[in-house]
Amino acid sequence: MSAPRKLSGLQKDVLRLYRDCLRAARQKPEESRPRFRAFARAEFEKNIDSMKRTDAKAIEYLLRVGRRRMEQYMSPNVRDITKV
């Protein structure tokens, strides 16, 4: 049995942001949590096929954008989210 493949720093950052989004969704009202989780998943899946794993600049940019958006959406004033 071989050892599991090691993740790069960027891959770890992407997974950390995704987990943080899912954890932050737990802070939202019970009825809107599934929509927050679905929105986070859709945002991550949107870029999966259109981007190369080696395109570090684009990934870093999307990580910065994702962190900013997560901070905005996790404001106590935001109670629900809809996918447009």
From TrEMBL:
Xref: InterPro entries? Complex1_LYR_dom, Complex1_LYR_SDHAF1_LYRM8
Q: Which GO terms describe its cellular component?
A: mitochondrial matrix
Q: For this UniProt record, give its keywords in alphabetical order, as a comma-separated list.
A: Chaperone, Mitochondrion
Pfam families assigned: Complex1_LYR
Q: Which domain of life is it from?
A: Eukaryota
Question: GO:BP terms for this protein?
Answer: mitochondrial respiratory chain complex II assembly
Name all Complex 1 LYR protein domain ranges: 13-71
State its location(s): Mitochondrion matrix
The coiled-coil segments of this chain are none
Q: Which protein family is named in the record?
A: Belongs to the complex I LYR family. SDHAF1 subfamily.
Kindly provide the name given to this protein in its UniProt entry. Answer: Complex 1 LYR protein domain-containing protein
